[in-house]
């Protein structure tokens, strides 16, 4: 196993997939559990209220949401800005509109690459499948 420094505390640890050490993982899990318990008691709370009522920061809560570690089903006020346009969203890194725009652009780029490949045009670089 590779040895790495923990992203949060700087300690050395045997890296097994995450960028933080086992102790910081335990601390994160405890904070995540506290957030979930708070949301069960206060389903109408927003991110700022949750941060104030728990040991979590606004940034930690948003990161849990973006990473999918905190899933909101019954908490309509837990919204944070989309990384692309700033519109409020409740899951992932992008809002629904930006996700559609990105998917459409990716589809168009894929179709263009496929068309160029089938017509014998060679671009710069490699296309792997």
Shape: flat
Q: Helix content range of the residues, please?
A: 40-55%
* Lateral strand order in the biggest sheet: 1-2
Question: What's the β-strand tally?
Answer: 4
Keywords: Cell projection, Cilium, Flagellum
Protein name: Flagellar operon protein (TIGR03826 family)
InterPro entries: Flagellar_operon_YvyF
Label this structure with key terms:
cell projection, 129 residues, single chain, two-stranded antiparallel ribbon, 47% helix, mainly alpha, 4 helices
Model description:
The chain has 129 residues and is mainly alpha-helical. It has one domain. 47% of the residues lie in helices and 8% in strands. It has helices at 22-41, 47-53, 58-67, 96-118; strands at 3-5, 12-14, 80-81, 88-89. The strands form two sheets. The protein has a two-stranded antiparallel sheet with strand order 1-2. The protein has a two-stranded antiparallel ribbon with strand order 3-4. A hairpin with a 6-residue loop joins strand 1 (3-5) and strand 2 (12-14). The two termini are 30 Å apart. The relative contact order is 0.08. Keywords: Cell projection, Cilium, Flagellum.
How would the blueprint of this fold be written?
Elements: E1 3-5, E2 12-14, H1 22-41, H2 47-53, H3 58-67, E3 80-81, E4 88-89, H4 96-118
Antiparallel strand pairs: 1-2, 3-4
Short description:
The chain has 129 residues and is mostly helical.
């Amino acid at each position: 196993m590779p040895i790495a420094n923990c992203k949060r505390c700087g300690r050395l640890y045997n890296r097994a997939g995450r960028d933080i050490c086992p102790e910081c993982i335990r601390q994160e899990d405890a904070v995540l559990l506290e957030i979930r318990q708070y949301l069960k008691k206060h389903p109408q709370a927003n991110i700022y209220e949750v941060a104030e009522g728990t040991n979590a920061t606004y940034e930690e809560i948003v990161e849990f949401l973006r990473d999918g570690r905190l899933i909101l089903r019954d908490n309509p006020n837990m919204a944070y800005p989309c990384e692309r346009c700033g519109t409020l969203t409740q899951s992932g890194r992008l809002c629904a509109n930006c996700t559609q725009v990105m998917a459409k652009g990716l589809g168009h780029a894929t179709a263009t690459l496929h068309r160029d490949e089938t017509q014998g045009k060679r671009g710069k670089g490699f296309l792997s499948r």
